[in-house]
Amino acid sequence: MTKKIYTIAAFLLIGCMLTLTAQKKTLYDFKVKDIDGKPYDLAKLKGKKVLIVNVASKCGLTPQYAQLEELYQKYKDQGLIILGFPSNDFKEQEPGTNAEIKEFCTLNYGVTFPIMDKITVVGNKKVPLYKWLTEKTENGKFDAEVQWNFQKFMIDTDGQVSGYVLPKGSPLSAEIISWIEKP
């Protein structure tokens, strides 16, 4: 009987330790590449609110680039950073090379917020950043599998995921504006 109690206690302790470890990971623990293939250390975003969005050029939601740019222009001086991560995961709606994606974003939407290297955001090949964003075992908060292009993840000034907005939700939604303006 005592052996069973110790075994159960050991498993509970291990479970608690794993949860605490997951909660300690922040955005700042990740390094990615920008659209030009240069290393981009997310630790340089400490103290900023970050909106991470998986983007695509040939999607019905692609016009959200304009809203994302509008949001960025309005709030960048208050510490907002938007990071666009191109992904070809949904019906191959981002088939271009990084150079083509960069040109598309600049010419069609005047995008000035950082666009990153094309990545995988779903499935067993998703990059570590998106594993952290989408899995409770990694972020300590919630499971939020990416459902489509333009899903938005809100990261607070401490580098923790604080929420997400589904793809059809506008970048200019009350939820996102409220999150940005909240001290």
From TrEMBL:
Residues 21-183 form the Thioredoxin domain. Keywords: Oxidoreductase, Peroxidase, Signal. It comes from the Bacteria. Residues 1-22 form the signal peptide. InterPro entries: Glutathione_peroxidase, GPX_AS, Thioredoxin-like_sf, Thioredoxin_domain. The active site is at 59. GO terms for biological process: cellular response to oxidative stress. One of its GO terms (molecular function) is peroxidase activity. Gene3D superfamilies: Glutaredoxin (3.40.30.10). Belongs to the glutathione peroxidase family. This is Glutathione peroxidase.
